[in-house]
Every structure is written in structure tokens, then in C-alpha cells.
Amino acid sequence: MTDKNKQDPRLPDETFEPYEANRRIPLPVYWIAIALAIWGVVMLVQTSHSTLLADKERAALDKQDVAANAPVGAEPAASGKTVFNANCATCHGEFGTGSVGAVPPLANSDIVKAGGAKLIAQIAMRGIDGPITVNGTTYDGHMPNFASALDDKEIAAAASYVARTFTGAKDGVSAEAVAEIRKASAGQDPWAGGAELAAATPGLPAQPSAPQAAADMVQNADVATLVSQGAGSVWSCASCHGDQGEGTQTVPRLAGLPAAYIAKQLHDFQQGTRENDSMAYVAKALTDAQITALADHYAVMRAPSGARPSLDGDLARGEQIAREGDWSIGVPACFTCHGPSGFGVAPDFPALAAQQPAYVAHQLAMWAGGSRHNSPLGLMAGIGKALNDADRRAVADYLASLPPVPATPKVELTAMRSDAQPAKETTNDQ
Amino acid sequence: MTSNHPSDTPPPGPDKPSRGQTAKRVIYAVSGGLVLAVLGSLALDYGLAPGWLTGQGNTPTPAAKGDQAKLFTPPDVSTIPDDDFGQSVRRGMAIFNDTGTNAHDYVGNALNCSNCHLDAGRQAYSAPMWAAYPVYPKYRSKNKMVNTMEDRIRGCFTYSMNAQGSPTGGPPPYGSDVYRDLQAYFFWMSKGLPTGEKPEGAGFGKIDKPEKEPSLDRGAEVFAANCAVCHGKDGQGQKDMNGKQVFPPLWGPESYNWGAGMHKVDAAAAFIKHNMPLSEPGKLTTQEAWDVAAFVDSHPRPKDPRQVNGMTVEDAFNKLHHKHDGYYGKTVDGQLLGGGASPQSAGAPQQDGNSGG
Amino acid sequence: MNRYLPLAITTLAILAIATLFLVIAPGMQIRGQGAAPGLQPYTEAEARGREVYISMGCVYCHSQQPRATAQAPDAERGWGRASVAGDYAYDAPHLLGTMRSGPDLMDIGDRLPSQGWQLTHLYQPRAISSWSIMPAYPFLFEHKDKAAQGDVVVKLPPAYAPETGVIVANQEALDLVAYLRGMRHDYAPPADGLRDDGYALMAAQAKSKTEAAKSAQ
């Protein structure tokens, strides 16, 4: 051994046995480990806090629902007022004055006086489609039905509020009676104007006769097949949009949209100015005549609402955006352009009431992102960008809570189609 | 473990820790870790951490516009008190938003106050009511006297709402509840603003003079491209299926008359520049705003109610309009403007208009 | 190598803690969760379709777990509300998936309820979306000269249709589509349903922040 060591001192000692030095772990490693541990504990605490918070919010929401459905007897006037202001005042006005030439008044209305709260509940449950005379003035009445938007207690409260506040009636209507009315109204068409109402309720003032279901629209047999079974390479419309055109999730409700709007969208799908692969596939296989016929088919369709708020949106915020707008972010009220109560204004502003919430929120996001860009003047692009994710969900959920829009009257559409040519000439003249 | 073997035992290193050193190291390690955790959370708090790391993204703060910040924000509608005063405020708001219904006897066209005073009279640069209320009473050269708020609203009814065509044929009489409720609404809205000072956002704002003389031809193009979607190709606005006017008519018998401020091209241009198209103010260039304002105001509309007692348009022009930047008394397309608008002279026949204009 | 004992103990302890938090505790939480009220058990065709879904490997590209609105805009995409544990009561094994090469399918039956669409899309996704990266499944279909009684004919655009005869869906394709159309979870989830609420605090903070900013104006 000693010989070897002496042979070449530069070489390592061959007798050396390796061993693990007891080297310390560097301090920074400890620091990082301890910081991570602290972070982990903080996250744990925060998550449990978060879960508690979410639980509490859900419980509060449930309680709100319970409160909204509280027995009417408890405080009928107050809750009736709330329901009225949220659902009826958009058209009839906060003071029941209606709107001159368009919406009949409720205040001191001879019809309300004669029929009382019960008649109001009957009207609310079915809606109106036809002329109605109130206090001597005849209105071309188009009122949605609230059967899908309000429950028995809400309708009872609002109807009682209207009768008591605006005509000084003593009696309201009970939720049980409204439940009966709901049963009797199930599956019924809207009241065909004041004449049908007067026939059902004795004591109403004279009413104009409803126009005979004038010249039924030329029903295209081709279109009926297209809607229910599809044709050639095209799937049936109803297979996604539903038998009643009520839509589902990101598939929009079509029932009651302006015919011109539906036609424009189909043409846009055809030309690629609105992007949706499935709809482009369908639209490219349609002829112009088929598009017009389909648009008419859905425009006159009156279907119950298939939409429910489902995006966790803040309904109060949604109502604010829809009815008042939020000018601090440059957003006007939806109803300024889409019509009071979101009925739509033909031809460029589609109805929004009872539209599927996922569809609305999705489209707003697409306007914002630029993947939908076919609105007139790009108006919706600016609005989509101004709304953040929570606002989009809020307004979509609010619109989903509204009663479905009254459909375009068949008579009007037929008239529109028959004088479409002359109308065009007039505009060209100018 | 056979730790007795000599080779297993590490030679006593120079850094074999003693008791005191271990404690010291523990303190260093723990305090270092704490400092790191605190620094990390501070960085997170002050938003120094990038968005992809926190998963929060860059949420834009609402209305970060510089000039918006200076503007007065009127109180929220939900704060209207639930008492008799509040009822009056609410009635005033109802008149403001649906004037034809709630002040039916004094309105001679299809307009509402809120058609020009946007957002129920709250929107800055669309003559917000909170900016008007604190500066009245004031002297106005239009009628050469000190006007109270009631006088001023009376003027609005006379000209913008064309009261001459209303069922009563005139504006609400002095002392009418219409004035009372409207003033209650304006007063409530102006809470907190100093009296006698014109706040930022008053009126329609300023607009520069156009580079070129306003042209009706260019204006017609701007109108077709930017306005017709809502106001209709014929400028008569649009109604919903119930017949409720959703978009206001801009000329013709159902619009403001020749005495209204909006008939002056400079006023209309300022309004358009700062408010139209709705939700896209500033989209039109200054020149386009002037052109389209001229186009709109070069159409027939109800006559100036001050033109009475056999006064001709020419007399009225010399007496009332010669200082104005408008089309009153001028001839456009072979038609002398100012004589009033019959239903036929509007772009399209109105089938079910309100009581004539 | 020395000190085997402490090393082994530390290793086992770490493993035990991980098992406790990732396996045992969640297991205890989920044990009490029954089927969500409103959830329908699978029909026979749907159950068969589920087997096809598994055998075709759909799960490798499609998840079945929409996230809460605080975490991802899944509801806005139409992918449905955030799922709760009770939604998976009849799924053994669950098909949650880990990848989203394609869209989430938890609510596909609500979003695209059309049998015709689903069949066309399975036969040739490119017939609908030229950019789709989903594989085609032509082997689930048959080329026949003439459709027999009860055959479901697939609607195809001219570019993808056979020159003669028709394309008919076979039983596997029909089952798979039945399963997909049955994927509807549009009922209200139970209030106490187990769910991921981890982002609720962050969402609440963000909300109060914007509100504060607004009121400061």
C-alpha cells in the first residue's frame, strides 16, 4: 500500500472509499419549500371559504325563490306591484296608462272594471291577438301570454293589483282560481280580440268583431316537409329548433322572429357573412323561395317559451341592461331598439323575449370577438364588446325569463307579401 | 445499519453543525420562507403577477374613459323615494318617456322627450335634465325674457312636441301638473349639483365647423348608410307590432316643428355627432354629422307656431329665422320649406298616425 | 446509501397523505351522493351506445364535465351548466375525459338534438365543417343500393354522397347517436350536490371590485 502511494502522488488514492458527506441543504431550498407549504395551506383555507360562500349564495337564491312564491295573502298589494312593474309596466306603463294608439290603458279601463281581476288573469294566461276596444278606442292588440313566464301566485298577485289599484275594485283573484284558469286555458290559442272575450265574459262593453281568419297564408307543402322531415341532404328544422320553433341552448328560438330577419340570416349563412357550419350546410341547400317560405312559417308561429334562465346570471342586472341600458359602459337599453318588452322591430331588430339564454350569451360573445359580424352598422359588435362575461349572462338570463313574443299576425304577413312589389317601387321612386 | 464500519463514518467535517448553529439555520429557513410567501402574495395583490399565472386575465375596468369620469352621474332610478314626492318624480319620468300617452292632450306629434334627451334625460351631451335644472331661471333671447323651468318646458311642448297639433291645440297651461311632475323629476335627478353653474355634459356639446359647406347629397348618402336602419328610409321611424313608435320620425307631420331647436343644423349636427348612431357616438366624422343634419333638416315639418295672423313664411323668416343656420324659408327640390307638413309631404303616407300635426 | 428507515417512512407518509386527500376523502364525500333528481337512467339503446362511445375512444378527445361560469365560459358556449357529482350516478366508469380536442359532450343532446345531424357528422365530419379534425366513422354505416324498410338513411351533400345507392346507419351508429341525444342534463342540480366551487370566492371578489369601481364613478 505504501509503495503504491509513493509511486505517483498525483493519482487518486486507490484505497479511498466513497462516503456521503453530511452536506447541508442550501437555505433557498428551505425557503421555497416553506413558502410553498404556506401557499398550500392558504389555498386550502381559501377553497373551503369559497365552498362555504357558494353554498350560502345558493341558499340565498333558494330563499329568494321561496319569498317570490310566498302566499299572496301575506302582502298582496306589494308583491302584486312588484310583479306588475317587472312584467306588465314595460308596455302598460307604471301607472297603467298604456300607450296612445298602441297599448290599451288599464287605469279606469271599462274592460277591467267589467271583468275584474279574473278577466285579467284569463287574458294574461292566453294573451290576445286581435282588435280590442277599451274606453271607446280600438287597439290592434298583440299581447303575449304569461303562462310560461309567471306562476299562479304571481299572476293572481298582479291581476289583483291591477284591478284594485287601477279601477278601485274590492275583489282580487286567488291563486287557486288562477290555477283553474290555467287548466282551462291549456292548449288554447290567444283570445281573438275583444269579441271572443266579450262572448266569454258577460257585461263587457261592445267589442269589434275579429277579422275572419282572412285568407290563410298560402301554405307551402314543401315547407311543411322541410320543417318536420327535412329534404334531400338537409336535416329537418324541427330536429334542432324543436317542433314549435322554441330552440334549445345554443340553438335559437325561431317562433315569432320577423320574417325578414330570418330570411336575411339564412342568406347570410349561404354567403358566409354569418358563420355557422351546420347552418351554412342547410342554407346552401335551400332555394330563395324555400327561404322566404320558411321565414314566413316561423314568423307567424306562436309557441310557448322553451327558455329558462340557466347561466347563473344576475337577473336584476340583466333587467337593468335590457330596460335602461348602462350608459357608463356605452350600452343603450336592449329595448330601445328591439322594442318594448323585446318584441322586436321588423325587419332588422329580432325579438329577444324568451330567446334561449345560452344562444344570446354565445352570440354576444361572438359579436364581441368578431366571429359574428352581420349586424346593421356593426351596432352589436360595439355592444358585445362593452358587456363583460357576467353582463352577457345576466342579460341573456333576463331575456329568457320573459314571456314569448306574440307572433307576426298572418293577415299582416299575407298583406306584406301581396303588396311587396308596389312598396318596392315607391321606395325606388325617391 | 452497520455504521460501525470505519468507511461509513464520514470524517469529522469542518462544518459539523453544533446545536447553536442548527437553531440559527432553522430561524433563517423559516423567516426566509415567510418573507418569500409574503413577497409572493404582495406581488399578487398589486397585480404584478402576469394574467396567465393568476388565471384572472385582464378584466377591463368599466368606463375607463378619461372625460367620462368628470361627468355628473345622476342617481339611480331605484333610489326614487317611496313617498308622495317619489310618486311625482315617477309620474314625471313616465311623462318624459311616453309623452304622447302621459301628456296626451298637449302633444301634437309622435315624439317623446326621451327621443332627444337620451336615457330618460340622463345622458350627457344629449341635453341631460340634470344639467338644465340648476341653470334655470335664465334669460333666453328666443323669447327675450327670463324663463323659469316651467317656461322652458312650455317651449319644448310648443315646438319640439308640436303642441299646435295636439287635442287641446297648445302646451299645458301654466300651473299644470305636467310641469309639476316633470320638474320634480328634474330636481330629483340634479341632486348634489351646484345651482347656477353649467355642468360639463350640458346641452349637445360642441362641434367644430365643417371643412366643406354641408351638402344635402352627401347627407342623403350618410343617412341611407347610417340612419335608415332605425329611422327608416323615409325618415318616419319604425313602430312595433302593436303600433308603438319605437324609433322616432325625423321629419314630416309627426316630427318636431320649424320652431324647435333641433331644426337648426348646428344643433342637430352637435346632437348627431355626440349621440348617433345610438351606442356608437363619434362614428360619424364632423363633416358627415353636418351633412346628415342638413339633410334631415331640409325636409318638410309642421309649421312654426309663431307664424300666425297671416304671416307669410318670408315674414316669419325675416322676423324669426334670419339668424338661424337652417332651411326655413329656403327652397329645396322645388318646395318652399316652412309652410308646414301635410301627411302627403312626408316620405310615406302615415296610415295610423296620432291626431294630425 | 444509509438511513433506509427514515427514508422509507417518509416515502410512505407522503404516499399515505396523497391517498388520503386524493382518494379516501373524495370517496367519502361522493359516497353520500345519489343520482341527481331529474337524471334518467340509460335506456337499452343508450347503454349500448355508451359501449360504442367507449370502444371508439371518444373519451380521448371529448370531456363530459362542463365547468362553472367562474372558471370557463362553458355555459355561454352552450355546453351546459357545471356538472355535479349526481349527474354521473349511472356512469361506471365515468367518462369525464381529460382532453378537449373536441367540444364537451355532457349536454350534446340538448345542443344538437338532431339525429340526422349526428349521423351525417359521424359518417363524415368534414361534410359539415371543412376544418374539423374529428375522424370519420364510415365503418358504422352501410352502403346499400336501396334503403330497406326501417333503415335510417344518412343525409349527405352531393360531394360526400355515394354515386349510386344510399348510406344507411347500422345499429352501432344508431345506438351511439341515441346515447349522444340522451346526453341532456338540463334539470336543476340539487342545491347540496357536490360540485367544484373553488372559484366562487374569486368570482365574488371580482364582482365586488367592479361594483366598487362603478360606485366610485
UniProtKB/TrEMBL annotation, chain A:
GO terms for molecular function: electron transfer activity; heme binding; iron ion binding. Keywords: Electron transport, Heme, Iron, Membrane, Metal-binding, Respiratory chain, Transmembrane, Transmembrane helix, Transport. Residues 409-430 are annotated as: Disordered. Residues 75-166, 225-302, 313-403 form the Cytochrome c domain. SUPFAM superfamilies: Cytochrome c. InterPro entries: Cyt_c-like_dom, Cyt_c-like_dom_sf, Cyt_C_IC, Cytochrome_c_Oxidase_Subunit. The keyword Transport applies. Gene3D superfamilies: Cytochrome c-like domain. Its cofactor is heme c. It comes from the Bacteria. It holds the Pfam family Cytochrom_C. The chain crosses the membrane at residues 27-45. PANTHER family: BLL4483 PROTEIN, CBB3-TYPE CYTOCHROME C OXIDASE SUBUNIT FIXP. This is Putative cytochrome c4.
Automatic annotation (TrEMBL), chain B:
PANTHER family: BLL4482 PROTEIN-RELATED, CYTOCHROME C DOMAIN-CONTAINING PROTEIN. Pfam families: Cytochrom_C, SoxA-TsdA_cyt-c. Keywords: Heme, Iron, Membrane, Metal-binding, Transmembrane, Transmembrane helix. Residues 342-351 have a biased composition (Low complexity). The chain crosses the membrane at residues 26-44. One of its GO terms (molecular function) is metal ion binding. Coiled coil: none annotated. SUPFAM superfamilies: Cytochrome c (SSF46626). Gene3D superfamilies: Cytochrome c-like domain (1.10.760.10). This is Cytochrome C class I. Residues 87-190, 214-300 form the Cytochrome c domain. It comes from the Bacteria. Residues 1-21, 334-357 are annotated as: Disordered.
Automatic annotation (TrEMBL), chain C:
One of its GO terms (molecular function) is heme binding. It comes from the Bacteria. Keywords: Heme, Iron, Membrane, Metal-binding, Transmembrane, Transmembrane helix. InterPro entries: Cyt_c-like_dom, Cyt_c-like_dom_sf, Cyt_c_oxidase_monohaem-su/FixO. This is Cytochrome C oxidase, mono-heme subunit. Residues 44-184 form the Cytochrome c domain. It comes from Thioclava atlantica. The chain crosses the membrane at residues 6-25.
